[in-house]
Amino acid sequence: MAKKGFELKTITRLISSDSDKPNWSLCVGAGISIPIFPSWYALAKNLANTLIPGSDLDEEMLTDLAFSADALIQMVKNKTKISDKDFAIKMSEILYSDFKEKIEPNDWPAIVKILEANHLSKITAKEWDVFNKYRDTVLKNTTSSVIAKSVFKAIEAGISPKSILSFNAEPLLLVMLNSLLMQSKTDEDHPIPKQLFNKVTGSLSNQNDKRIQYVFCHGLLPLSNKSDKFTYSTEKLVFSEEEYLQIANNSFSWQATTFINTCTTQHIIFIGTSLTDPNMRRWLSWTHSNRLNEMKEYNLNVEDSTQHYWIKEKPKNRDLMPWIESAVSHLGVRLIWLDSWSQAGEALELALGLRKREAAPKINKTYKKKNNNQQRRKTHSKKDNVKHRNNKKNEAR
Fold first, then answer.
1. Are residues 371 and 326 in the same domain?
2. CA dihedral 299, 301, 302, 303 (to 10 degrees)
3. Based on the domain organization, do 248 and 370 belong to the same domain?
4. Secondary structure element (H or E) that encloses residue 233, with its range
């Protein structure tokens, strides 16, 4: 039977080890970047209407087709005759279009440089000031902004994630974290390394074990056709169904081995993912089944074991909550329910033990005792008055 999900009022520290040092990773999906970046259906619609003359699709029409997101992207790609690289460039232009419209034209080159950077040493303080201006305004209400602050708080507290697995083809959360890193360098009480994250787009990427691995499991889009080859990874892009099926047919793909290794060695907290991805579900199922079998070998009487947690907003129909909990229980995943995405950072901090849930206000015992005594005196006084009136009536008779 599926375990009941946590809510903010019931969640306690969930990630810990014998040494009291959390061994965890974060896994993020497209949900953390909405509304700055479009949903999958919006992306497919915009691609079709931009690349195919005469197209007039809308999101409702695409939803009615009942195809997966990658199948919709493949559908559009099949109707064009452009190369894979040109298709990736067009996809990038559409992905970043809403964000770019909110940026002043003179500021866009600095934003692009920061989004593409592999090394922080190449970014000037003035360029960071430009990004921070939009981080604190345009990007303020994204879930990326909310959880970046909580992840950085965990880093400062010495309980860093071992890795961050991103299934997005854009680096918004990574850049948010790097901007907080650069700001912290002015605070002498919190000495932070110059480079905190490795930007990992493939097996050949620099993976310094003293840094946190930020892994782009589905590749990374270039921002233009002039982007440096080492700043993106179109070879690992998994937007079309063709690319997705190549991973599905290879149990030893870079994405599969990276994800499975993380599942077996660490707790994973999922945010912004739908957990409907068949590959991800298969990898989780394998590792969870193996975990249960090993427990049986050691005669551990455990019917189920939760190793991973999924932070998710409550559905409008609350009756669906137990069904969603049941849909991921066999994957070793337990829900952490939010009333709104603005609570994502708070939920993450509670799960990591960085924040204590506010306790109900205590009643002052002296004050309570005093009130009880006063109440008893009032009760006795009322009884005496009634007795006195009854005696008067008897005397009158």
1. no
2. 110
3. no
4. none
The span from the CA of 162 to the CA of 228, in Å, is 28
How far apart, in whole angstroms, are the C-alpha atoms of residue 88 and residue 169?
10
The DSSP-derived string for 71-94 is: HHHHHHHHT----HHHHHHHHHHH
Place of tokens 């080890």: 17
Please tell me whether residues 292 and 340 are part of one structural domain: yes
| Cα–Cα dist 311/338, whole Å | 7
Tokens of 8: 């903010």
Cα distances (angstroms) measured from residue 332 to each of 18, 203, 307: 21, 27, 6
Residues 116 and 234 in one domain: yes
Would residue 94 count as lying in a domain? no
Tokens 């700001």 — which residue? Answer: 183
Same domain (yes/no): 309, 172: yes
What pLDDT tens digit does each residue of the chain (397 aa) get? 688 999 999 998 888 755 444 589 999 998 999 889 988 888 888 988 998 888 888 888 888 887 777 778 888 888 887 888 888 889 899 999 999 999 999 999 999 999 998 888 889 999 999 999 999 999 999 999 999 999 999 999 989 999 999 999 899 999 999 999 998 865 555 555 578 999 988 777 777 888 999 999 888 888 877 767 666 665 555 454 555 556 555 666 778 888 989 999 899 999 999 998 888 898 899 899 888 888 888 888 777 778 899 999 999 999 999 999 999 999 999 999 999 999 999 999 999 999 876 654 555 544 445 555 555 555 555 555 545 555 544 444 4
Structural domain contains residue 65 = no
- 259 falls within a domain: yes
Residue type, 4: K
Helix (H) or strand (E) run with residue 271 in it:
strand 267-271
Helix (H) or strand (E) holding 66: none
Q: Do 239 and 384 fall into the same domain?
A: no
Residues 208, 313, single domain; the answer is yes
Taking phi over 0 as left and psi of -120 to 50 as alpha, with beta for the rest, 41 belongs to: alpha
Judge whether 203 lies within some domain. Answer: yes
Structurally, the chain folds into a number of domains equal to 2
Domain containing residue 370: 365-397
Tell me the residue type at 144.
Answer: S
Residues 107 and 229 both lie in one domain: yes
In sequence order, which residues have a C-beta less than 8 Å from that of residue 85 and are 6 or more positions away? 225, 234
